[in-house]
Structure formats: structure tokens, C-alpha cells
Amino acid sequence: MEPRAGVSKQDIRERIWDYMESENLADFPRPVHHRIPNFKGASRAAEHFPRLQAFKIARTIKVNPDAPQKHVRFFVLESKKTLLVPTPRLRTGLFNKITPPPGATKDILRKCATSQGVRSYSVPVGLDSRVLVDLVVVGSVAVSEKGWRIGKGEGYADLEYAMMMSMGAIGKGTPVVTVVHDCQVVDIPEALLEDHDITVDYILTPTRVIATDCQRPKPLGIMWSKISCDMMAKIPILRCLRDREQQAGKDVTLRDEPRHLPGSGHLLTASPSGGRRPQDAPGPGPKSEGAAHGSLQGKGTPPVADVYVGNLPQDARVSDLKRALRALGMEPPWLTWQGPRRRAFLHYQDPAAAQRAISCLQGLRLGAETLRVAPARQQRDK
Q: Domain RRM: where (predicted)?
């Protein structure tokens, strides 16, 4: 199954997916195409994990949410270490911390390690939590003994790693582990690797433990020139990190972000979400005097520090909204809850904080609903 010369990453993915299907090497879900394969023997491969020295000394471990890493997640919980699992497609934040109920039995811990358990027994970890991750586990479609890795092609594992670096949650020496079937260990041409690709330090298979001794540098943070406006629109926490790095003076220009209007010297900037800037929304009432950011208001309108959040689910609770805001590091000092009207108003201390919240919260989902987030319209004295 060694790749031919001149192959692409997708060629290698397709060959492995096809081979695993033809040889019946995978469990549910099938087919394995466009997935991190849930290979047969995943539990045997995971048994190597607690024996790694990197595992023994780790206190907080991040593990991807895919099915073949279910047994890895169980071992983390059984060892009473802190388990962090990325939120699906990063739509509501970066991490969830899995919190089993007190006195949980092994059967309950196994349930906590499943995708359903991750949803039921987790709390979000916000950007301001100062979490430190000691060990990272990622899924792979293909990996080489040198430590080169190929995922399923969506880039989420690479982005999660880069975001953790940007947050200071990991460092250059944080080990990365992957758990795969033996057939997924193949030669990968180094020419296929890009600067944003992560590499792995340990490969666990049902029959082997491979220490790659990989010397290729891992990404040192988010490479904004690789991020599209479309991806920014889908991932609220990415917009929050971009705002922070922009304030720190870093170049955060996106891959497909417009630069200048044709035939003019004026800079054309996209909205932080990559889409239209939100229109002013109703204010909460006389209490909300003062504030949306000047660039989001009409000419001459003073900035306000109140943010409107609409289209809340009918059964939403204020705690649901607070939890989502906390995960993005955007919880305001106080808020006005108007659940029966399916809306709320977030009250920040200054216009800059309100503007960051508007930027970060675009596209945020609560339950099945996509929330509408906009500056609260200033209430004028009658």
C-alpha cells in the first residue's frame, strides 16, 4: 500500500479508505470515506496509551472526538486525568471538559467517553480559562513512521493545534499522539507537507508503538493567510482569537480577504465574519443608553456597549446562553434576559468589548438555532 510517486494527499486518503473497506477493516460508521476510520482493533491500539511516559506524567489531555479514540478517552478518565475534547467543527468553542458524575463506575466512564457522553457530561472551557494541555491526541487517515500526518482533509486537527498554540495552552514540546490501524502507516512524501500541518511524536497501532523522533517544527500559531473568510464565518472562537491577535499588532489578513477597491486607494475590509456587517437591532429599553461601535452605526451616531442577541430557541435558558458566551470568552459583566421574546441584551463596559463580542458571536448556534447578533440600537429620550 505504499503511495506512488507524484501522488497527492487525497490520493493517499482514497487508497487507505478503499483498502479498509475492501478488507473489512473498519467498524461502524461505514463507509469510512471522508472520515477518521473507526478501525477494528482500536481498543488494542489504545491499550498502549497508558504505558507511554508522556501519558503517565500528563495531567490534562486533549483527545479528538472521533470514534476510534473512544478507548483513549476512557483511559484518560479512568486515570482521573482532565479530559478535554474539541467541540464538533469548533462551532461553539474550542474545548469541552468531560466531567463524569461523582463515584462514576467504569461503565459510566465508558459512556462518558462516547460521543453521546461527551455531549451529556461536559462543560465548555473558555478562552480565558488559562488551561494548560500536557498531551494531545489526534485522529489520522494516514501517518508515516517519520511523523508526517494526513487527516480527512478538513483541517480541523491542524487548526485546533494552532489555536491551542495561540492561546498558550500548549508549547513546542507538547507531545502529539495518533492511534491508527497498521495499514494506515505508510510512506508519505515530505513534499506534501505544508507549514500548517501538524506532525506526530507517537503512533499507536494494534501491534506497535512507534516513536517517530520527528524533528520537523510544528506550527507556532494560527497562520491567518491560510484561513478563508468562509471558515471565519463558521467558527466564532476563531474570530475571537483573530481580534485578540489583531489588537496585539499581528498580521491577521485572511487568505481571500479583499485588500483594495479597484481603481482607488481606499482599503476594503471584510467584516470579521467574512459576511455582511450586522444591522442595528432594537435596544433593550431606556436602560441601554449609549453604545454600538461607531463603524457599525450611521455617521455621527455615538458608539454603544450593548449587544442584541436574537433568535434564541424557545426553550433556551439564560444559563445556556451564559455557557456559550463563557466558552468563547465573551461573557459580559451583566445581561438582560427576555426569553419569552426570544432575545437578550449583553451589557459590556466599553464599546471595544461590545465590538469584539459582535465579531466573535456571528454564526453562533444555540441548540438548532443560529443566533442573530447585532449592536443594540440607541434609545433616544422622548
A: 305-378
Last residue of a domain, one of 195, 211, 227: 211
Distance CA 345, CA 158 (A): 35
State whether 46 and 182 are in the same domain: yes
Name 127's Cβ contacts closer than 8 Å, sequence gap at least 6.
94, 167, 237, 240, 241, 244, 328, 329
Instruction: For residue 313, tell me if it sits in a domain.
Output: yes
- Residues 376, 279 contacting (CB under 8 angstroms): no
Alpha helices in the chain (DSSP H): 9-22, 42-46, 53-57, 70-78, 106-112, 115-120, 156-167, 229-234, 236-247, 318-327, 351-361
197 and 333 belong to one structural domain: no
C-alpha cell at 201: 511524536
pTM: 0.73
Helices (H) and strands (E) in the chain, counts: 11, 16
How confident is the model over 319-351, as pLDDT tens digits? 889 888 887 888 898 899 998 999 999 999 888
Is the domain of 329 the same as that of 183?
no
Cell of 210: 512507534
Please check whether residues 71 and 187 belong to one and the same domain. yes
* Residue-range definition of the domain harbouring residue 317: 305-378
**Same domain for 172 and 58:** yes
Strands 149-150 and 135-138: unpaired
176, 196, 211 - which closes a domain: 211
Q: By the 8 A CB rule, do 96 and 85 touch?
A: yes
Q: Which residues pair with 209 in a beta bridge?
A: 204
On whether residue 264 sits in a domain, the answer given is: no
Q: Are 157 and 151 in contact (CB under 8 A)?
A: yes
CA geometry: angle 146, 73, 47, nearest 5 deg = 60
pLDDT in tens, 265-282: 444 343 444 444 444 556
- Any idea what the CATH number is for the domain that residue 354 is in? 3.30.70.330
Q: Which three cell numbers stand for residue 78?
A: 479512568
What DSSP element (H or E) covers 97?
A: strand 95-98
Model confidence band, residue 2 (pLDDT cutoffs 50, 70, 90) = low
